[in-house]
Amino acid sequence: MLFNSYIFLIFFIIVTPIYYFSPKKIRGYVLLFSSYIFYGYWDWRFCLLLGFTTLSDFYISKMLDSNQETNKRKKLLYLSIGTNILILGFFKYFNFFIDTFDAIIKNFGLNLNFLHINVILPVGISFYTFKSLAYVIDVYYKRAEPAKSILDYAIFLSFFPQLVAGPIERAKNILPQIMMRSRPTFQQIQSGFLLITIGMFKKVLIGDTCGRFVDHIFARPEYYTSPELLSALVLFAIQVYADFSGYSQIAIGTAKFFGVDTMENFKQPYLSSSITEFWRRWHISLTTWLRDYLFLPMAYWFTRKLDALKLKPKYVHYGAYTLSMILTMLVGGLWHGANFTFVVWGGLHGVFLAIHKIIMGKKKIYDHYIYRGFTDFLIFILKVTGTFILVLFTWLFFRSESFNQAFFIVQNIINWQGSEFALRFFVITLTYLFLMVFIDVMEYTFSNPIVLLKIKSAPFRFGVCLSIWLVVLLFMFQSKPMPFVYFQF
Amino acid sequence: MLLRKYILSVILASAGFIIALILMELYFEFAEIVSPSVVDVDAHIGSVFRPNKNLVLFKEGFYVGGTNKYGYLGPAYPPFKKENTVRIALIGDSYVEGFQLFDRHHFRTIMEKELKKDLQKDVEVLNFGRSGFSFPDMYCYFKNFVMTFSPDIVIFFVHQTDLNTHEQMFGPRCYINNGKLDISYAFNQAEAFKFRGKTDFLRGKLSLLSLISNCGKLFSEGLTWEILLDKFYVNYLKKDENKGESRGNNPAMSSIDSAIVRELNEINHAGSQTNIMVVNMGMNKDAINIFTDLGLAVIDPSPALEELKNEGINPHAWKATRTTGHWNHEANKAVGVFLAGEVKKIVN
Fold first, then answer.
1. What is the ipTM of this complex?
2. Given CA atoms A382, A384, A388, A391 in this order, what sign does their dihedral have?
3. Whole-number Å distance between alpha carbons of A76 and A16
4. Contact assignment for A467 to B30 by CB distance below 8 Å
């Protein structure tokens, strides 16, 4: 089910009161059953895979908890990691690897194309696999308590607000809340409703409307001129952000209706004054996952290896950082999709992050701007613009179907050719940009994603929400719901 | 005291509602999310385009453009035609209107470019396409509006489904009066027409009203349950309804259609400056025979489209929306070049 569809709203309106009015003992089953209905709505076969991951990781973590023998525990951990990677690899990357090897061995007159099979990519597989992996690793390192019952773990993994596109929440934050099966408080319902309202506005009225331009122009870029291509690129940057942050806000808001508070996934990333800050604000749940389970172990490993070479501590530090960062971002890129364009996207970010680290040295990178006079503010604006341009450039690879398409677009933007619609595209793009920046500045200034709460008068706020919902529902009625960009991952 | 508080709350809620609605209207307009209605009704012509209106539409393809100051599509060529200029008017339904691609990719532009390149004259191709127009609607539009632009060649694009019907709700109607073709303008006396006339200024200005109108259309087409219940409705509740006749199964030509063909043929041969051509968009053999028997040449663009198919290109496939529908970019190019070739034969 897509959050931006009527069927989800109907589902949500039915499930929430059932959960609320059910006795505590039954609430867990209500949540699990509704989560599987939510997921099975795409394709019931996806539930089997989710069920398998749930069972295998639950029992492996149980054994990890009860077993104290290091060797056996290690084997169990590798078994879980191997199983998860294998499933993810098969469903998401099988054809990608076959095609890649096929392209290589074609040079030797061989053909692997017959191995190409039509695999359906289960929605959200990357998200719940990472969630489950993190759980098993945390249990292994005793950073998290294992789930008491299979029901708790099954709810944790299939919890429908987060199932298909995160946030990739850690067990130690969510499991205790799920085990409580508590009813939502008034505050949770209020902030949940406002978050869903803002999320729907971002997704339906910003993300989806931007996406229509983007999809058409990126599908046939050869028919569009430089201003139109540039506009499509900027609109994609807005689309992907509005779409994913909107989704996250709906997910966080929906979870609150079941008494569960989850982590923030976005903190106004386009207001970042450096690429490092951008990654602290963009898709936070994935970034912290990659940091904890990939970057840090790799950095320790590289540090040990480089130390053994008896290099200067400075070189060891930067060397380990650079190598681990680039590798982490390459994996992060590949996580997004089975295409080399995503790898390049991740790689570019890795290089930018490494360069920034080398430039900054041990200087502290602030996460929040504090006004220190006009000149300082101007420098901040320049830095934000510069960071946005860098990120924009990488989005080109993220959105393009192939390198050829990406280079074609770059070439056409550089060899600037006007368009009869240049002004209109400029106004359209500027309007979206202005709105997105306006919402972000509000959230940034108030340090709160629920900006609507800042409207002090409750009736006035109610009127604003009613108006937003009216337009959102009308728009949803007249156009087919657009899937979330991150669903494909 | 409680009542006062209650009234204040209602006022504040209404204020919040209206202010947010105004802001969203502005956002919709500047971002061109839903364009205000470009269609107006004229007491004589019926459905017309409002002049100088910008339009962005997303269908199988995507359109950015608008109407010109004379109320048709493409460059604004004035009613007065310059000397040594060949003026061609295209009349048809959504295929001619072409709200799936930019005007620069429309077969109108391709035709114009091709003809300008080959003829030693200035060539102007005017797009009078109107989606949903039937053959009698096209004829009325031709008589009441298109002819004021003094075209040398008028090309009608006719499909089988365009025959034997009037599609416009507010528009003139063809009828046979004492064996002769006539046009009735009774629609402008209807109360609904007068009401629409009074509210039309809003429809042309507010994007949100267009949004409501789009939803209303879907509601009246009976799509509400499908939109609300999605798969549940499609898989379990929807009855196997015959969704009406598909394109190409309309009844044969009516006496009105034949009378229109005769009338057009007379224009063609009565020493008039205007040449009439008909493009077959999918008529059956009987209908084509009536056209040709009554003396109007029917051009068939299918060889141009077949050539595309042979190259492995589906002329109706749209990559962005993964749908099939109207002619895509390649098809428009092929049809433009093909029609230019046909027109050259007449001009030469």
1. 0.90
2. positive
3. 38
4. no
Please report residues of A whose CB lies closer than 8 A to that of B20. Answer: 463-464, 467-468
B58 — contact with chain A (CB < 8 Å)?
Answer: yes
- Cross-chain CB nearest to B58 (options A212, A428, A471): A212
The pLDDT tens digits along chain A (489 residues) read 899 999 999 999 999 999 999 999 999 999 999 999 999 998 889 999 999 999 999 999 999 988 888 899 999 999 999 999 999 988 888 888 877 777 777 777 777 666 667 777 888 898 999 999 999 999 999 988 889 899 999 999 999 999 988 789 898 899 999 998 999 999 999 999 999 999 999 999 999 999 999 999 999 999 999 999 999 999 999 999 999 999 999 999 999 999 999 999 999 999 999 999 999 999 999 999 999 999 999 999 999 999 888 888 888 989 999 999 999 999 999 988 888 999 999 999 999 999 999 998 888 887 788 888 999 999 999 999 999 999 999 999 999 999 999 999 999 999 999 999 999 999 999 999 999 999 999 999 888 888 888 888 999 999 999 999 999 999 999 988 777 777 666
Select the residue of B16, B215, B321 nearest A462 (Cβ to Cβ): B16
Tell the residue number behind the tokens 């908890």, with chain if given: A65
Element at B57 (helix H, strand E): strand B54-58
Site from B14, B29, B64, B213 to mutate, A interface, most A CB atoms within 10 angstroms: B64
Interface test with B, best of A236, A400, A421, A468 (most B CBs within 10 A): A421
